[in-house]
Design a protein that fits this description.
Blueprint: E1 15-22, E2 28-33, H1 36-49, H2 55-64, E3 69-77, H3 87-101
Antiparallel strand pairs: 1-2, 1-3
InterPro entries: GIY-YIG_endonuc_sf
Organism: Deinococcus aluminii
Protein name: GIY-YIG nuclease family protein
């Protein structure tokens, strides 16, 4: 077990599916993460600094600012085994959300 996989002083990260929704266009960035809070914080930080690799998302952020977006957790997973790798479960949950939202390529960043 590595130190990265051990809960730090009782901290267990939230894992699940997130969405960043642009209000004006309805476009979204949807993904999964084993650490939702950290991922959403990183996304905000990159956008605030102007260095998000996704140029289309960054341009919309530059135009509309933080108020033009919603950052949200769509769903969370509770692992049955605390040290098990949740990647496959997260991918499956993300696929279910893509289907549920009826996402088309033009709807996403």
């Amino acid at each position: 077990m590595t130190s990265a996989s051990r809960p730090y002083k009782g901290f267990t990260p939230r894992l699940g599916v997130y969405r960043v929704l642009h209000h004006r266009t309805g476009k979204m960035l949807i993904g999964h993460s084993p650490h939702l809070t950290g991922t959403l914080n990183r996304l905000r930080f990159q956008l605030d600094l102007g260095n998000r690799p996704n140029r289309s998302l960054q341009q919309d952020w530059n135009l509309d600012g933080a108020g033009g977006f919603t950052f949200e957790v769509l769903d969370e997973l509770t692992p049955l085994e605390p040290l098990a790798d949740p990647t496959d479960d997260l991918r499956e949950l993300l696929a279910l959300w893509r289907e549920n939202l009826r996402l088309r390529p033009e709807d996403e960043y």
